[in-house]
Design goal:
Helix 7 crosses helix 9 (about 240-250). The two termini are about 30 Å apart. The protein is of the alpha/beta class and about 260 residues long. Helices cover about 35% and strands about 25% of the residues.
């Protein structure tokens, strides 16, 4: 419980990133630089300053597992009534492996459901180390082409896909594949079906989420003094998202939903 790590936010009463009502812990640091990232303050492990609503705000603080769990435990009645719990997000939460594992262990010790939202960019043994304490892994799979993945995120995708296979083969946790649908990157039916076919090939995977791109993070880039990488790219139209959903369900055995 004395393990410490660096976070930039704790969001209570969330109904996203896992079932039921959840508390989401956002860990600092990410190896990728996705052009559409809606949390640019998560990318650097360093503590930063960002302008929010005209005021400077410090993004990042060091906390212990005990401190985090004091907040998480406040909402245990809501978790039990809604089948909710604790979700770790980021950034890439697995880049702080000891802290992430300790948080999951602390939650499981008191009967709280656990989930992580992660793209699986983790070193050898990291994923295997958390699985015994994890109920749901929400894994982002962004593209099947390693070159295009690297062009838009800064890293190719081999490590992520290998970790997805490891999680599925373990049989220890529910694995849900999530796909950010980004115009100019992966919004075609062919590209989405390639990801869905991969997901369908993974043992035990029954569900895939298509997450339409949005520009909600634009103001955060401005607050950090950075240019917004996506420019004027628009959110995919609802009819396009519905077409992709129908195609996934027609060509695979997966349940497909829009949004997460």
């Amino acid at each position: 419980m004395n393990v410490s790590g660096r976070i930039f936010d704790i969001q209570r009463y969330s109904i996203h990133d896992g079932a039921g009502i959840r508390t989401i812990i956002f860990l600092k640091g990410c190896a990728l630089r996705c052009r559409w990232c809606c949390n640019p303050e998560s990318q650097s492990f360093d503590i930063e300053s960002m302008t929010v609503n005209g005021r400077r705000k410090t993004m990042g603080r060091d906390v212990t597992v005990m401190e985090v769990m004091q907040t998480v435990k406040r909402d245990m009645p809501y978790y039990s009534r809604s089948d909710g719990g604790l979700t770790l997000s980021g950034g890439e939460c697995l880049l702080q492996p000891e802290f992430a594992k300790a948080l999951l262990m602390a939650a499981k010790d008191i009967g709280i459901n656990t989930a992580i939202e992660s793209m699986g960019y983790a070193g050898d043994g990291t994923v295997e180390g958390i699985l015994p304490y994890l109920d749901t892994y929400l894994m982002d799979v962004k593209h099947m082409n390693p070159k295009k993945h690297a062009e838009f995120t800064g890293k190719e995708n081999t490590r992520m896909l290998e970790n997805a296979k490891r999680v599925a083969e373990s049989g220890l946790t529910e694995l849900i594949i999530r796909v950010p649908v980004v115009p100019g990157f992966n919004e075609t039916e062919e590209e989405i079906l390639a990801i869905a076919s991969f997901a369908d090939s993974l043992s035990g995977v029954e569900e895939i989420h298509l997450l339409p791109y949005h520009s909600y993070g634009r103001g955060k880039y401005e607050g950090l003094g950075r240019a917004y990488p996506m420019g004027d790219v628009q959110t995919p139209p609802p009819e396009h998202m519905q077409m992709l959903r129908a195609s996934v369900e027609r060509h695979t055995g997966l349940r497909c939903q829009i949004g997460g």
